[in-house]
């Protein structure tokens, strides 16, 4: 009976937990839990939308659905890079908001155990923009990967400001 | 209180039997024809039932046919409305037309499954059975 | 939504009919609120409504509703039989509305799956007191009291089934070791153990007791069970003896999947759960059930019940799954785009091709798609009548409470609007209407007459459909907005910091929508959370709409909700600016003009104007406004489009005209903040995305300068 129960538990275990889609931006490697990743597609023509934040590049047509795309390098306040044929778009779904992330290079899907994840150092370069979005560091045999919280990544400053304002109202 | 229960599904039958035995002696039948036979026999033995609980979907005769038969027998024997047996239909069919038909044929209550036990008791109370 | 989903049509019929009766009741009340008294027809109608509700509430055993309606029925019984004069009309009106509100409240609770636990005793006491006064009046007037209104207790009852929310559906497969003896008996003991707790249990192979060979099947393929029960997985596992089992596959599934599994196992599925799109359920006249229809074939072990008479499902109601409607809507949008892809295919642009036959066929196609689109849209459209009716009640309530004399006019209540939209505008409209009565109409009628206005205030609620949008406006002829006071209030609250001259009047009006501008207003309705106009605006923006505010001091205000239809297909002209395609709505284009540099006039501030037929029009270079590279900057090389919206005109410079076509309006993903001047986007035939220009927005932008 015991073995049966264990067997069942393993089957139930979320098959996706611990798997991360990794990509490169600048010199670092980043990872996003693949539970957020819907698709990975090649670079596509982007329709520019005027008067938006600099990291929002515009809209793409994904088989009939119109999706906004953001440039991860620009979001991390790095120098934007020219798009090459390596450039891909990772389409993520965060709480029903679908956004495409333009990344310069896709790495692979890594399996990272919870035990291997450590919180990011709180000291460090204050001006390092990407730290805002990183919730953990994962050490694999060959490299360190910065694990990103997609909700923070796509959240816009305006929305944050608005929420703060609303919270103040309630007090 | 003497109760006649007609229900062909094993699980429901067990459940209803347990429920109804709290209020009185419960006789359990598994198809419509048996139910009518039992009802008739009880009348002739001068120990009529106080309450009949009928499922609608049953083999041989369905709940509506049983209800119709029961009312017919009572009419034939000249039993007044006051003295006629109280009939509660229990079923998973909740369409308005099913309910209307049951009321037309003369049942006192129509209880949807799964049974709301609290309300079921309330009905028994309103019908003066408990 | 909870109210759309109902497996119990007896219950939903009760809710539907009772709500309908109450609405009729309210209608009578509001019509006759200003009259001296109800006439005989009204009294009869009200009596009948209460009588019916009392009856059905009695059957359903909702005693509080029954008692409340019974008491009111009693009152109207006496009014009907004795016709006393000088019945205090206003008081009576209020009592009827009080009963109606109570019952409506209880019905709402039931709709939400809660118990109808309201206490009717105070209401009944109140009515009792009123009734004894009426009886006194009747006696005083020398009229004979009628025989008492004999009430018979209901004799037939309907008990609604309890919600099946706590039922679990499990799919279980038991695999025994290959050397297991009598696996069929083991399987049987498993099923026997589950029978006590099973609401439904099906298994295969079925003939486990009668056929020893079933044991071989079980060893080879496993013993499959489908179980519906309230108990947990652990409890189920405990019940099944699995000591000889090698493995148990155990999955919890949804009731839909359960139904599908039944089909897989070769059984008939349970009757369909149906979701109604229309409110209310209308049973069909034919196909009445009759005794004998429900006899079942004798139950075989392991099988579900099957009716002897092979009855088609009871549903003669045609209802449509909401998700399917949404899918249908998406598809028609895709179809229009696909049509454009075909009609504008580059393959057709070969010179010298004779396309006469093709054009004829294309035209047929276009006609059919347009019709299809209209029919589909109409399936989702519902008139605003109900929503507007609610507003009538609100005006009545608020004007009574504040002691203001207000006339309420409704125009275009039959205007149809997508069902989705109705749900989202009800609250904002309520707020706007309340505001008009509360803050718009002057408290002192003299204030009005001094300005030459009639003493009675007037509020108009108007709806109209135009160009793919719905316009719903709330107009009052009251005080109007005082720009100075608004500015000072906003300044005081620290919401703005620029001098007043920096803002246009329209912008100052919009201060009322700033969060935090009006605190403490109507805390009851929205219970505390950032109440006020800012919430209204947010709700409207959530469905892609906007709020326009217009006002004249002393003359009144007009609040207009502008909401795009969910599926808007408009006729548009695709133009090119730089590398980007844009769409202009055909109806907003007055003309295309080629111009030269000399027709332009430049202000020192940098703004440009164009002179056309002696008039000046603001001139916008889209390439500069939206910082689009690769565009011709030369007026001489491009085309100027004269656009108009509500009488105002502007001129826009574009590079090229591309084509005219039907455009499926899609919202710009909400992730992207609203951009002034853009009202949406669309996919063109070649797959590229074009942004749709919002003329009103562009004009507003220009006015700001």
Molecular structure report:
The complex is a heterotrimer of chains A (171), B (130) and C (705). By secondary structure, chain A is α+β, with helices and mostly antiparallel strands. Chain A has helices at 2-12, 72-75, 150-154, 157-170; strands spanning 19-25, 28-33, 37-42, 56-62, 65-71, 88-94, 97-103, 105-111, 117-118, 134-139, 144-148. Chain A has one domain: CheA-289, Domain 4 (OB fold (Dihydrolipoamide Acetyltransferase, E2P), Beta Barrel). The longest helix of chain A has 14 residues, at 157-170. Chain B has a single domain (2-126), classed as Rossmann fold (3-Layer(aba) Sandwich), CATH 3.40.50. Chain B is built from 5 helices and 6 strands. In chain B, strands 2-1-3-5-6 form a 5-stranded parallel β-sheet, sandwiched between helices. Chain B is globular, with a radius of gyration of 13 Å. Chain C is of the alpha+beta class and 705 residues long. In chain C, a hairpin with a 3-residue loop joins strand 12 (546-552) and strand 13 (556-564). The radius of gyration of chain C is 34 Å and the shape is flat. Residues 1-7, 267-286, 310-317 and 520-530 of chain C have low confidence and may be disordered. The B-C interface holds B 8-11, 14, 32, 56-65, 67-68, 92-99, 101, 103, 105, 107-116, 119-120, 122-123, 126-127 and C 7-11, 13, 61, 153, 155-162, 164, 167, 195-199, 201, 281, 283, 288-299, 305, 307, 314. Strand 6 of chain B pairs parallel with strand 1 of chain C.
């Amino acid at each position: 009976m015991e073995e049966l129960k264990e067997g069942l538990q393993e089957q139930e275990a979320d098959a996706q937990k611990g798997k991360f889609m990794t990509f490169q931006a600048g010199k670092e490697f980043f990872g996003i839990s693949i539970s957020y990743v819907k698709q990975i597609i090649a670079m596509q023509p982007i329709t520019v939308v005027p008067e938006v934040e600099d990291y929002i590049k515009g809209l793409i047509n994904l088989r009939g659905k119109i999706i906004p795309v953001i440039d991860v390098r620009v979001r991390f306040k790095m120098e934007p890079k020219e798009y090459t044929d390596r450039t891909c778009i990772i389409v993520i779904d965060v709480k029903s908001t679908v956004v495409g992330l333009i990344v310069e290079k896709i790495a692979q899907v890594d399996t990272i155990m919870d035990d291997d994840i450590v919180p990011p150092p709180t000291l460090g370069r204050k001006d390092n923009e990407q730290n805002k979005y990183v919730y953990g560091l994962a050490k694999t045999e060959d490299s360190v990967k910065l694990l990103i919280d997609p909700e923070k990544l796509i959240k816009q400053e305006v929305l944050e400001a608005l929420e703060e304002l609303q919270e103040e109202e309630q007090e | 209180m003497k109760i006649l229960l007609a229900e062909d599904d094993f699980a429901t039958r067990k459940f209803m039997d347990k429920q109804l035995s709290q209020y009185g002696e419960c006789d359990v039948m598994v198809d419509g024809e048996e139910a009518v036979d039992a009802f008739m026999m009880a009348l002739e033995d001068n120990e009529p039932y106080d309450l009949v609980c009928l499922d609608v979907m049953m083999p041989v005769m369905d709940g509506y046919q049983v209800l119709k038969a029961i009312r017919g027998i009572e009419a034939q024997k000249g039993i007044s409305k006051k003295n006629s047996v109280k009939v509660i239909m229990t079923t998973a069919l909740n369409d308005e037309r099913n309910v209307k038909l049951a009321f037309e044929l003369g049942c006192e209550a129509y209880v949807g499954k799964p049974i709301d036990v609290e309300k079921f008791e309330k009905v028994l109370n309103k019908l003066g059975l408990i | 939504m909870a109210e759309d989903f109902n497996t119990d049509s007896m219950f939903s019929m009760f809710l539907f009919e009772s709500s309908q009766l109450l609405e009729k009741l309210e209608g009578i009340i509001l019509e006759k609120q200003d009259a001296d008294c109800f006439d005989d027809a009204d009294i009869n109608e009200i009596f009948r409504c209460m009588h019916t509700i009392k009856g059905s509430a009695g059957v359903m055993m909702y005693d509080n509703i029954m008692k409340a309606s019974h008491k009111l029925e009693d009152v109207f019984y006496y009014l009907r039989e004795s016709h006393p004069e000088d019945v205090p009309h206003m008081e009576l009106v209020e009592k009827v509305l009080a009963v109606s509100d109570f019952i409506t409240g209880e019905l709402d609770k039931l709709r939400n799956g809660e118990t109808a636990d309201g206490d009717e005793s105070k209401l009944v006491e109140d009515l009792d007191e009123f009734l004894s006064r009426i009886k006194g009046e009747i006696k005083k007037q020398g009229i004979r009291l009628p025989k008492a209104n004999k009430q018979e207790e209901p004799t037939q009852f309907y008990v609604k089934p309890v919600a099946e929310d706590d039922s679990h559906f499990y799919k279980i497969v038991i695999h025994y070791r290959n050397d297991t003896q009598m696996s069929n008996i083991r399987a049987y003991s498993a099923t026997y153990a589950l029978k006590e707790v099973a609401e439904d249990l099906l298994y295969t192979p079925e003939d486990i007791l009668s056929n020893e060979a079933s044991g071989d099947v079980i060893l080879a393929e496993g013993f499959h069970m489908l179980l519906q029960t309230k108990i947990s997985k652990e409890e189920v596992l405990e019940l099944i003896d699995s000591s000889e089992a090698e493995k148990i596959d155990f999955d919890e599934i949804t009731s839909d999947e359960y139904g599908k599994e039944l089909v897989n196992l070769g059984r008939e599925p349970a009757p369909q759960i149906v979701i109604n799109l229309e409110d209310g359920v209308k049973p069909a006249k034919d196909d009445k059930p009759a005794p004998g229809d429900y006899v079942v074939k004798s139950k075989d072990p392991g099988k579900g019940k099957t009716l002897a008479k092979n009855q088609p499902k009871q549903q003669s109601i045609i209802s449509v799954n909401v998700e399917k409607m949404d899918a249908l809507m998406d598809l028609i949008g895709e179809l229009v785009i696909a049509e454009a892809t075909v009609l504008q295919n580059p393959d057709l642009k070969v010179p010298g091709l004779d396309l006469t036959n093709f054009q004829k066929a294309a035209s047929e196609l276009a006609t059919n798609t347009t019709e299809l689109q209209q029919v589909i849209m109409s399936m989702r459209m519902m008139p605003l009548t109900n929503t507007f009716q609610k507003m009538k009640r609100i005006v009545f309530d608020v004007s009574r409470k504040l002691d203001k004399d207000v006339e309420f006019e409704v125009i275009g209540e039959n205007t149809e609007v997508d069902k989705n939209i109705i749900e989202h505008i009800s609250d904002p409209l309520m707020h706007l209407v309340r505001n008009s009565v509360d803050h718009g109409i002057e408290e002192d009628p003299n204030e009005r007459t001094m300005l030459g206005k009639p003493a009675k205030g007037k509020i108009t609620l108007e709806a109209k459909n135009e160009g793919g949008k719905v316009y719903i406006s709330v107009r009052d002829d009251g005080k109007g907005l005082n720009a100075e006071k608004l500015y000072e209030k906003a300044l005081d609250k620290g919401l703005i910091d620029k001098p007043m001259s920096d803002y246009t009047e329209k912008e100052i009006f919009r201060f009322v929508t700033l969060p935090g501008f009006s605190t403490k207003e109507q805390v009851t309705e929205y219970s505390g959370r950032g109440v006020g106009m800012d919430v209204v605006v947010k709700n409207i923006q959530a469905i892609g709409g906007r709020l326009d505010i217009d006002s004249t001091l002393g003359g009144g205000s007009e609040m207009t909700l502008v909401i795009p239809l969910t599926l808007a297909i408009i006729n548009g002209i695709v133009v090119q600016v730089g590398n980007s395609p844009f769409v202009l709505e055909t109806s907003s284009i007055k003309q295309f003009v080629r111009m030269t540099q000399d027709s332009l006039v430049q202000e020192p501030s940098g703004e440009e104007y164009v002179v056309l037929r002696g008039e000046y029009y603001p001139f916008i270079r889209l390439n500069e406004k939206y910082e689009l590279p690769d565009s011709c900057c030369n007026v001489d090389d491009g085309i100027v489009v004269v656009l108009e919206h509500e009488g105002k005109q502007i001129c826009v410079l574009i590079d090229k005209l591309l084509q005219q076509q039907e455009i499926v309006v899609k919202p710009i993903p909400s992730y992207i903040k609203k951009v002034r001047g853009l009202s949406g986007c669309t996919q063109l035939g070649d797959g590229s995305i074009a942004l749709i220009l919002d003329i009103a927005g562009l004009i507003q932008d220009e006015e700001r300068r």
